[in-house]
Design a protein that fits this description.
By secondary structure, the protein is mostly beta strands. The protein is built from two helices and nine strands. GO terms for molecular function: peptidyl-prolyl cis-trans isomerase activity.
């Protein structure tokens, strides 16, 4: 059976950056299961997997536009320290969820100064070309509930 819209695919993957550093990897005994065609994985990887079947192996290079987007410098802001009331110590690298104009946003603290806290609303992988080494483990028809919800049901 081939990977196609409204099917559930299970893949093993290793994600590396341009320098070959491993950024993420599926656990060996637990492939990533996703509902194909519903935007549950990045578009560039989903397109590359279309039509593949169990046993297929592929290497995929995904440009930022088909992954987590290009970096947007307008998403780097300095917020007043008062915006972090209730947080004992704000440090670089911390992440906070916020509500932005376009919906939920993950903010990463990149600097803490006397004047304020500099945060970055870009996805941590924005602007990067991603490299996937993928092996398709399984493809199956989605259940009616999965088709209605557009996502894989827990096992």
């Amino acid at each position: 059976m081939q990977i196609a819209a409204s099917r559930v695919a299970s893949i093993h993957y290793t994600l590396t950056d341009a320098d070959g550093r491993v950024l993420d990897k599926s656990p060996e005994s637990q492939p990533l299961r996703y509902f194909h065609g519903a935007g549950n994985i990045i578009p560039g990887l989903e397109k590359a997997l279309d039509g593949k079947q169990a046993g297929d192996a592929l290497k995929v290079e995904v440009k930022p536009e088909e992954a987590y987007g290009v970096r947007n410098d307008a998403l780097v802001k300095v917020l007043p320290r008062e915006a972090f009331q209730g947080v004992d110590k704000v440090e670089a690298g911390m992440q906070f969820r916020a509500q932005g104009e376009g919906g939920p946003l993950l903010l990463t603290v990149i600097d803490v100064g006397d004047a304020g806290v500099t945060v970055d609303g870009n996805h941590p992988l924005a602007g990067q070309t991603l490299h996937f080494d993928v092996q398709v483990a399984d493809v199956r028809e989605a259940s009616e509930q999965e088709r209605q919800e557009g996502r894989v049901q827990p096992a």
